[in-house]
UniProtKB/TrEMBL annotation:
InterPro entries: Tscrpt_reg_HTH_GntR (IPR000524), WH-like_DNA-bd_sf (IPR036388), WH_DNA-bd_sf (IPR036390). GO terms for molecular function: DNA binding; DNA-binding transcription factor activity. Coiled coil: none annotated. Pfam families: GntR. Gene3D superfamilies: Winged helix-like DNA-binding domain superfamily/Winged helix DNA-binding domain. It comes from Stecheria intestinalis. PROSITE patterns: HTH_GNTR (PS50949). The keyword Amino-acid biosynthesis does not apply. Keywords: DNA-binding, Transcription, Transcription regulation. The lineage of its organism: Bacteria, Bacillati, Bacillota, Erysipelotrichia, Erysipelotrichales. The keyword DNA-binding applies. SMART domains: HTH_GNTR. Residues 10-78 form the HTH gntR-type domain. This is GntR family transcriptional regulator.
Length: 121
């Protein structure tokens, strides 16, 4: 179910978190669906259980899942617009960290949506 790239610069817990968010957004995971246990996810992917627990904790903190002690981790009811906003913010933060200027992002966004920039007028 999960494709993790151990060689990636993106931490494993973030890869898990991102994939679960995408699964929720696309309907692969629906509200009330149970996620694999921390132990099972770790075994299936050959990773440390603490890594999985960190991803699940972040998802719970952000409201994407509910952790019910002794029962498991379940997908929460999440508004679609919130998930999209979170994904856009994550990408934009990554661009900022890579040194891409805000002006470049805005120019590209204008071009993508067919809007002319001041330089083109």
């Amino acid at each position: 179910m999960f494709l993790l790239n151990i060689q990636s610069k993106v931490p494993i817990f973030e890869q898990i978190e991102t994939q679960i968010m995408r699964f929720i957004e696309t309907g692969v995971l629906a509200p009330g669906d149970r996620l694999p246990s921390v132990r099972q996810m770790a075994i299936d992917n050959g990773i440390n259980p603490n890594t999985v627990a960190k991803a699940y904790a972040k998802l719970e903190q952000d409201g994407y899942v509910n952790n019910i002690p002794k029962k498991g981790v379940y997908v929460a009811e999440v508004k679609q617009t919130r998930m999209i906003d979170d994904r856009v913010m994550a990408v934009m933060k990554q661009w900022r960290e890579e040194g891409i200027a805000k002006e470049t992002i805005l120019t590209c966004a204008d071009a993508a949506y067919g809007e002319k920039t001041d330089a083109e007028n």
